[in-house]
Each structure stands twice: as structure tokens, then as C-alpha cells.
UniProtKB/TrEMBL annotation:
Source lineage: Eukaryota, Viridiplantae, Streptophyta, Embryophyta, Tracheophyta
GO annotation, biological process: L-valine catabolic process
Similarity section: Belongs to the HIBADH-related family. 3-hydroxyisobutyrate dehydrogenase subfamily.
Residue intervals of the 6-phosphogluconate dehydrogenase NADP-binding domain: 15-186
Domain of life the protein comes from: Eukaryota
EC number: 1.1.1.31
Keywords (A to Z) from UniProt: Branched-chain amino acid catabolism, NAD, Oxidoreductase
InterPro entries per the UniProt record, alphabetical: 3-OH-isobutyrate_DH-rel_CS (IPR002204), 6-PGluconate_DH-like_C_sf (IPR008927), 6PGD_dom2 (IPR013328), 6PGDH_NADP-bd (IPR006115), HIBADH-like_NADP-bd (IPR029154), NAD(P)-bd_dom_sf (IPR036291)
Domain 3-hydroxyisobutyrate dehydrogenase-like NAD-binding, first and last residues per copy: 189-239
Keyword Oxidoreductase: yes
Name of the molecule in the record: 3-hydroxyisobutyrate dehydrogenase
Enzyme class: oxidoreductase
Reactions listed under catalytic activity: 3-hydroxy-2-methylpropanoate + NAD(+) = 2-methyl-3-oxopropanoate + NADH + H(+)
Length: 245
């Protein structure tokens, strides 16, 4: 199996569909637009899609219509149920009425690894409308992100990617249009698994910062003083900012 071209704006990835234009997705899609990709978008909230249609980006009524206009489709959705509905529901990406146009589907939602693996297998069983570069079947990457809204805005997200390594290498330049790091984690579902592990580590860190603040104040130290100390000592960490905001 030959690899996709990994160069930016290759013909394989020029037309990008983006589904899910919330706080994260809207900023990620905007960065793709800035990078020169041709976007087609969809969101159930039409007020959000207007942000893109007002600058000339076409919007579609269903995920299926997005797929029909795209070489690659990225989803950024709130939960596993939303992802399953967009992929498998009525007028979903994998609508069985027609072979699949996109060669690659990328899900950046934070969902459970089992759902990512189930969808990856389903995508691989689909038929391509047009085969290119000896790719016999479409592929899926689970590529959740870390960094929050500020990093989505700045284009400095970290992508944790599971799936085919060839597909990862092909998509890397696309991902780096929205982030500063794209790390291959192994097979299907491993990106989602890595995100869960990252979130667990962050949660433990946040709990530690919260407990330290509570303890310090109970011992007579003000929160502002503790903040100065944490900010200039070994307690300094990303989660500290989230607790103190």
C-alpha cells in the first residue's frame, strides 16, 4: 500500500470537511482555512455555521453531504454518542446509499477507545468511490487533542493519533495546520486511549493543586501568596492555571 503524499495541500487533502464547530472545532476549522484548505462545514447549530458561510465557506445540511464534497473529513464532537450518530446515523458519513468519497476520516473528539476501534473497523469495510494511490479502502484516525480553547485558537494543539501509521504520516501536515505536535500512538483507538491517560494525569494534578491551596489557606497563607509561590516554584504546571482561573 503506497502512502498518501504528506505535502501540504496535496490533491488528496485539498478539500476538507469539518463537522462540529463548537469552541474547539470552530477554531480548528478557522486555522485550516488560514492554511489554504478548501473547507466544507456542518453543525447542528446554524448560528455557528454562519461564521463560515459569511466568509464564503459552504455549509451542508448533513454529514453525508459533507462527505460527498470532501477528500478528508474531520469531526470534533462532544461525546461518543454524537460521533456514532454522525458516522452511522441517518444521512451519516457512512451512509450505505453510496460508496465513500473521502479516503480518510479523522475524529478529534474525546471519546472511549472502544468506540474509536469499532468505527475504524467499520470505515475500513467501506467501499471507496474512487481509488487513488493503491488505497483499496478508506481509513480512519482517532486524533483527540490537548491544549484547550486557547491552543485551538493559536494553532498549538497536540494531537494524539491512533490508526494506520501510513494514514498518520499522510495526515500529519494537515494536523500541523491546527497544532504544533502530532504524536503517533499506535493502532486504532490508541489516540483515544492516550487522551484518557492524559486527562487522568491532568485531573490528579488539578486535585493536588486544589488540595494544596486549601491546606495553605487553612494554615493562614493567602491564595494570592500561594499563587505567586506556585508560579515560581516546582508546583508550576498547566493545571494550576485552570484551578486558579
Amino acid at each position: 500500500m503506497r502512502r498518501f503524499s504528506s505535502s501540504p495541500l496535496s490533491s488528496q487533502f485539498e478539500n476538507v470537511g469539518f463537522i462540529g464547530l463548537g469552541n474547539m472545532g470552530s477554531r480548528m476549522a478557522s486555522n485550516l482555512l488560514k492554511a489554504g484548505y478548501k473547507l466544507t462545514v456542518h453543525d447542528v447549530n446554524h448560528n455557528v455555521t454562519k461564521m463560515f458561510t459569511n466568509v464564503g465557506v459552504p455549509s451542508k445540511e448533513t454529514p453525508f453531504e459533507v462527505a460527498e464534497a470532501s477528500d478528508v473529513v474531520i469531526t470534533m464532537l462532544p461525546s461518543s454518542n454524537h460521533v456514532m450518530d454522525v458516522y452511522m446515523g441517518p444521512n451519516g458519513l457512512l451512509d450505505e446509499r453510496s460508496p465513500l468519497r473521502p479516503h480518510l476520516l479523522i475524529d478529534s473528539s474525546t471519546i472511549d477507545p472502544q468506540t474509536s476501534r469499532k468505527l475504524s473497523a467499520k470505515v475500513a469495510s467501506c467501499t471507496l468511490k474512487e481509488k487513488k494511490d493503491n488505497w483499496e479502502n478508506p481509513l480512519m484516525l482517532d486524533a483527540p487533542v490537548s491544549g484547550g480553547v486557547l491552543s485551538a485558537e493559536a494553532g498549538t494543539l497536540t494531537f494524539m493519533v491512533g490508526g494506520s501509521e501510513d494514514a498518520y504520516l499522510a495526515a500529519k501536515s494537515l494536523l500541523l495546520s491546527m497544532g504544533k505536535n502530532a504524536i503517533f500512538c499506535g493502532g486504532a483507538g490508541n489516540g483515544s486511549a492516550a487522551k484518557i491517560c492524559n486527562n487522568l494525569a491532568m485531573a490528579v494534578s488539578m486535585l493536588g493543586v486544589s488540595e494544596a491551596l486549601s491546606l495553605g489557606q487553612s494554615l493562614g497563607i493567602s491564595a494570592s501568596t500561594l499563587t505567586k509561590i506556585f508560579n515560581s516554584s516546582t508546583a508550576r504546571c498547566w493545571s494550576r492555571y485552570q484551578v486558579l482561573l
